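Re: the 238-residue chain
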Amino acid sequence: MAPITVEITGKKLVYVGLLVLSLFGVIIILWYSFLGIFGEEGKKMLTHLWYDFENIVLSNGFWLFLAIAILPAFILPVSPLLILAGKWGGAHSPWMACLYSVLAIAVNLGLTYWFARKPGNSLVKWLLSKTKHQLPEKPPANLAQWALILRLTPGVPFIFTNYILGVLKLPFRSYLLVSLPILSITSCGYVLIFAGVFGGEKIEESAQRWAYVLGGFGLVFAMTLLGRIILGKQNRAN
């Protein structure tokens, strides 16, 4: 049987972008609805809850990295958690914070992939159908390439890509080979940046803090540049 292929075009990425925007729209509506009901008191309550959460996870790294592994699965942004990982790293070890963050993200990759592929398959497919983008019944022959482009496309949160690739049944090994290096480098970059910004017992000297900030920016910039190069080549090919 001839392999099934899917043309990778900007139109398909637009469909994915629409899915992301629609889900973010739901979150924003819920946020403003909450503020409309509870007003300033509700805002203060959420602020206090965040500070309580921050104190708990910074005093016990296990809970912080468990949160990184689990909470993004509920479409919660991972960026604030990586900021806290950087702050924890400044007090303990920036490189250990990077390692634990990568391990936590690897766990999240596995959990969300298998949820989308098995028990949550119907739910994720229903969400994708709202973009009028019909998914192929069988994994496309070039799905790994499409996954790479999706990972490198700015503005697409990694959690949505996890669910999409799980639904499309990209082989798990290929999924990890595409996903883990990209997310490891970018997450480490953010952790190092904020370890340098906040400082701590392990990096008290100004020169050390700047070294971590610049090193983190270097990792993020390198991955962003790589993404632009690959996407540029793909656009020219199309």
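Confidence is low (pLDDT under 50) at residues 1-9.
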